[in-house]
Amino acid sequence: MRSTSRADQADQRRAELLEATRKVVLERGLAHTRIADIAKSINVSGGLIHYHFATKDELITAMLRATLDIESAKLDELVAGPGSAVERLDRVLRYYIPESPSDQSWLLWIDAWNTALREPAVNEIMLELETAWLDALARVLSDGTDAGEFSCEDPAGAAERIDAMLDGLIIRYTLHPDVLDRGRLLAHARTAAAGEAGIPVTSFS
Prior knowledge:
Layout: H1 6-28, H2 35-41, H3 46-52, H4 56-79, H5 85-96, H6 104-116, H7 120-146, H8 155-175, H9 182-197
């Protein structure tokens, strides 16, 4: 069996540090996370972390980008997957909506939105994330229109409207789940998407 190379070991260590960073950020928040907190969480020295990441900002940015890459790959898989355009659109909507108010991915991105106001590197990642979601929605709407399933004259504009509505409702769901539950949130998403696609909302049933 091939021995692990130094490069492989370094990649594995970086991945471990990124996962540890994600967990600590979810507990403490981006603004209050320190290198010392991350080091303590996995029993390593701060020096080891700085060996792989020069600064805390570099580490945080790398963690967010790794999360973005995972979500973007999943979106591509959903959009290119089997089934009708309605089925693919519904899969994208279901993936967009968090499984619970404590969904780790959404808690991370909500925190990152706040940080992005002051950190250009984080702002860039948030723009890439938003673009990935908009592209996914627009691609499904466009594919469905080309196939004759939908009637959507402006897939890009429709994607922006669906995206903006979902962002607002998901923040409400995260903060006040007793006011807005996931079932109602999904119903709102389907109603909005059906209107933009020019199909009855019952198409999602």
